[in-house]
Amino acid sequence: MISEICLIFVVVGWLIQFLCSDSKKISITFVCFYLFGILLLVIDGVLNNLVNLAILNFICFVIGLSVLIKIARSKKH
What pTM value is reported for the model? Predict the structure, then answer.
């Protein structure tokens, strides 16, 4: 059940990115939905003893968080 919910967040994030931003910019809303969905996937992996999957999703989360930080810093300048 958690997997389906978090994948919905990832899909919504991608839809926001596709529909609401121009082709050269990444939407902060997209990244937030994506990060929340991936974080839920990490939790789901841990709860279901899928350690390798949880680790891979955590790596995706860290990379996505890095993108969010980079976007936030670039908007301040």
Answer: 0.72
